[in-house]
């Protein structure tokens, strides 16, 4: 963590090695200070349930030495290398390279890869073992892509900072869970219903708070997200409290085929193939993909419509917007409602996939993760957001799979434990490395003669 | 009436803790205009440091006078927690200064996740209870006031006085206020802006560490996830009072404390947080920049 501490006092040190050594000692001392109580000692309960301290000085020494050495290597070798590369780049004539095939057709290639993904997985590892890859990676990532694209409408296009997006996700999930279990309505009826309900909540929240700007808006949306979660926990008669709702009906194949083994029209009976849970997962994968692509399609089309242009204008300059006669209130409300609707779609899909919902799934950290994906992807860029979702969610999911680490660190090592720690650190590192996100430029929707990418340093992020 | 006053006392205790944390949010917001999401976890680190120091003291000396123990816990917690916040500012926020507004917000959220999980990984996920440190309870006219509550209110009052003096009467405070008004101009007039910002983070963390120590003493238990809820409430308090305003942070903290204790006393304890958040929303609808906040001036 302390690897990037900069002690740049501005003086020119003749010997870079001496400087690196000095910085390494500083970093080591800081690490010692930070970790002496937290790594050097561990609080544990003894048999009488009293807290006792366990000493771990060896581990502390290891961590401090690693930090110091890392800092030394960084200052002595990495920084000069980066500087050299920069100097070379500046010296070389700016050659405008024609974007390669992959770059030009990135979106279509991406969609093709996503379409083929389950086929490839099944053909590589067979039906039964494909479950994990299609479900944990494919569907999980697609849900986050869907959510992030939905939030992108609010944050990336309209420039409204929403820290409680997960509330709409929760509304969608509970709408499906409650109506599906109590009234036995089908997913295909409840999906639009959940979307409308979430949009309705978006308007309900948006109406009073749209007078607020910037961080005030952020905190009210955060508060709203928490209120929804707390109500879900405490309104036990309806939501069953923290225990959640289980037995949520599965999605059917448009009513033609079912994925319940006991049903007469169970898929393997209809098609005459062997029973397997994998069909349902693969079907859900394509459903998630379709919903995500729908979100993307609507976003792209909306950006070309007056309302989408108004959103982006609002992000760039609210005062100019108002003076040009755009009704900022309705513009903000439509952004909120549209974003919320996609959150609701994602929520009802989530409920159908899990078969179980509980308030645990809708904590603030989820909102933060979705927002982080939007920002890391480069706000407003759909492809960038998808890449960010794959990197962040796929990356943390893959940590569960790293069995070989057990060989390195001993059999007690559980990589899952470090999942969120690494996730948090990755958020920081990616942001420091690319503050404008993976895709730092925007595609203009209105242009003269030729479409040129706009560097995001020219776009604003809104104040509302 | 007695019941009401009793709730006032409880609210004052809670509000003091929220107020101490809220100052850290509001100062950082005032000076660099970012929401330091990791501040709640800084508070948790403070509480955890106090816990470990308490255990060290207990292991090394057996029984220590409570005043000494509390003082040592507070001082060590203040030092180490400041070091955490200082490092975080240097690593995660400073390189992004002048970058766009959401970038430091995301690193702050990342740091918040990383900090709480760091403590979970190194200290284990369980709740950490300690034996009660102070247990005297006084009965004044039918209202029971525990020594814990008195300590919390007194410590908060003393710290706030000290803090008020620091901000309003010293060169450092003047530099801070100058940076808050106009960072560029302050730099031109010879104020070391980076240093001032670092000190602001250190001061915020020190107050949060005291709040953490008091929290540990009051509840007698702490866990790695304890940073989030007090953090959000303190931030709510800062916004309620008008973010950027120091008296506003304390006022907001007290208000949130009162709302919470009154609501749990007269209505339902389950919905006390809902009440606090709803009142925030209602206040902001009518006073869009908080109670003591300066209204934002729109420039064209």
UniProtKB/TrEMBL annotation, chain A:
Superkingdom, taxonomy of origin: Bacteria
Pfam families given in the database record: BPD_transp_2, DUF3382
UniProt main location, coarse: membrane
Topology in membrane: Multi-pass membrane protein
Record localization: Cell membrane
Domain High-affinity branched-chain amino acid transport system permease LivHM N-terminal: 20-117
Keyword entries, A-Z: Cell membrane, Membrane, Transmembrane, Transmembrane helix
Transmembrane regions: 24-41, 57-79, 108-131, 137-155, 160-179, 185-204, 216-235, 282-302, 333-351, 363-396
UniProt name for this protein: High-affinity branched-chain amino acid ABC transporter permease LivM
Lineage, top ranks: Bacteria, Pseudomonadati, Pseudomonadota, Alphaproteobacteria, Hyphomicrobiales
Automatic annotation (TrEMBL), chain B:
Compartments it resides in: Cell membrane
Keywords: Amino-acid transport, Cell inner membrane, Cell membrane, Membrane, Transmembrane, Transmembrane helix, Transport
Pfam families xrefs: BPD_transp_2 (PF02653)
Bilayer topology: Multi-pass membrane protein
Transmembrane segments: 12-35, 42-61, 67-88, 100-120, 140-167, 199-222, 234-259, 271-292
Primary localization class, coarse: membrane
Keyword presence, Lyase: no
Entry superkingdom: Bacteria
Entry keyword annotation includes Protein biosynthesis: no
PANTHER family: BRANCHED-CHAIN AMINO ACID TRANSPORT SYSTEM PERMEASE PROTEIN LIVH, HIGH-AFFINITY BRANCHED-CHAIN AMINO ACID TRANSPORT SYSTEM PERMEASE PROTEIN LIVH
Family: Belongs to the binding-protein-dependent transport system permease family. LivHM subfamily.
Name of the protein: Branched-chain amino acid ABC transporter permease LivH
């Amino acid at each position: 963590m302390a690897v990037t501490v900069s002690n740049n006092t501005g003086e020119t040190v003749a010997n870079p090695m001496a400087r690196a050594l000095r910085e390494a000692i500083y970093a080591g001392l800081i690490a010692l200070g930070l970790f002496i109580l937290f790594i050097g000692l561990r609080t544990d309960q003894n048999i009488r349930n009293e807290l006792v301290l366990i000493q771990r000085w060896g581990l502390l020494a290891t961590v401090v030495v690693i930090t110091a050495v890392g800092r030394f290597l960084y200052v002595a070798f990495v920084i000069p290398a980066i500087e050299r590369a920069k100097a070379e780049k500046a010296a070389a004539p700016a050659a405008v390279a024609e974007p390669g095939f992959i770059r030009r057709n990135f979106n279509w290639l991406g969609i093709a890869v996503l379409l083929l993904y389950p086929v490839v997985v099944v053909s590589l590892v067979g039906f039964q073992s494909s479950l994990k890859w299609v479900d944990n990676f494919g569907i999980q990532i697609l849900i986050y892509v869907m959510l992030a694209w939905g939030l992108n409408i609010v944050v990336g296009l309209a420039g409204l900072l929403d820290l409680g997006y997960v509330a709409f996700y929760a509304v969608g999930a509970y709408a499906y869970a409650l109506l599906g279990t109590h009234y036995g309505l089908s997913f295909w009826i409840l999906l639009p219903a959940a979307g409308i309900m979430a949009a309705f909540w978006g308007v309900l929240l948006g109406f009073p708070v749209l007078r607020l700007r910037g961080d005030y808006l952020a905190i009210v949306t955060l508060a709203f997200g928490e209120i929804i979660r707390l109500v879900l926990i405490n309104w036990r008669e309806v939501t069953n409290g923290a225990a959640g709702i289980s037995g949520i009906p599965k999605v059917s194949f448009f009513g033609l085929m079912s994925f319940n083994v006991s049903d007469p029209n169970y898929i393997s009976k209809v098609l005459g193939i062997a029973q397997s849970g994998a069909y349902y997962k693969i079907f859900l994968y394509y459903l998630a993909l379709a919903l995500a692509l729908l979100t993307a399609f609507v976003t792209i089309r909306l950006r070309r419509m007056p309302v989408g242009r108004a959103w982006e204008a609002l992000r760039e300059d609210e005062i100019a917007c108002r003076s040009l006669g755009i009704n900022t209130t309705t513009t903000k409300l439509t952004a909120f409602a549209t974003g919320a609707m996609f959150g609701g779609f994602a929520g009802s899909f989530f409920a159908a996939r899990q078969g179980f919902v509980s308030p645990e799934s809708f904590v603030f950290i989820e909102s933060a993760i979705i927002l982080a994906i939007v920002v890391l992807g480069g706000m407003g860029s759909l492809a960038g957001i998808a890449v960010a979702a794959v990197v962040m969610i796929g990356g943390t999911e893959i940590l569960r799979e790293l069995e070989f680490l057990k060989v390195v660190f001993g059999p007690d090592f559980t990589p899952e434990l470090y999942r969120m720690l690494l996730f948090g650190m990755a958020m920081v590192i990616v942001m420091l490395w690319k503050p404008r996100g993976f895709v730092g430029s925007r595609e203009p929707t209105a242009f003269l003669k030729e479409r040129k990418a706009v560097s995001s340093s020219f776009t604003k992020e809104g104040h509302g | 009436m007695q019941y009401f006053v009793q709730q006032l006392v409880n609210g004052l205790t809670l509000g003091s803790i929220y107020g101490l944390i809220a100052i850290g949010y509001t100062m950082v917001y005032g000076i660099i205009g970012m929401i330091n999401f990791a501040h709640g976890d800084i508070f948790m680190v403070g509480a955890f440091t106090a816990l470990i120091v308490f255990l060290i003291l207990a292991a090394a000396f057996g029984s220590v006078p409570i005043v000494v123990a509390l003082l040592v816990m507070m001082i060590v917690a203040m030092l180490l927690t400041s070091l955490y916040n200082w490092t975080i500012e240097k690593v995660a926020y400073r390189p992004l200064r002048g970058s766009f507004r959401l970038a430091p917000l995301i690193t702050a959220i990342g740091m918040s996740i990383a900090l709480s999980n760091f403590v979970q990984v190194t200290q284990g996920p369980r709740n950490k209870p300690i034996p009660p440190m102070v247990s005297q309870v006084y009965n004044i006219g039918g209202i029971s006031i525990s020594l814990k509550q008195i300590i919390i209110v007194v410590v908060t009052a003393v710290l706030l006085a000290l803090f008020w003096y620091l901000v309003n009467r010293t060169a450092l405070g003047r530099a801070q206020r100058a940076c808050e008004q106009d960072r560029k101009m302050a730099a031109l007039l010879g104020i070391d802006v980076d240093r001032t910002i670092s000190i602001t983070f250190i001061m915020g963390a020190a107050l949060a560490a005291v709040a953490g120590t008091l929290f540990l003493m009051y509840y007698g238990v702490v866990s790695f996830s304890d940073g989030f809820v007090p953090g959000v409430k303190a931030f709510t308090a800062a916004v309620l009072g008008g973010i950027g305003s120091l008296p506003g942070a304390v006022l907001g903290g007290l208000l949130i404390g009162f709302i919470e204790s009154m609501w749990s006393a007269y209505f339902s304890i389950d919905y006390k947080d809902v009440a606090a958040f709803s009142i925030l929303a209602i206040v902001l609808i009518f006073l869009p920049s908080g109670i003591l906040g300066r209204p934002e001036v729109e420039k064209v």
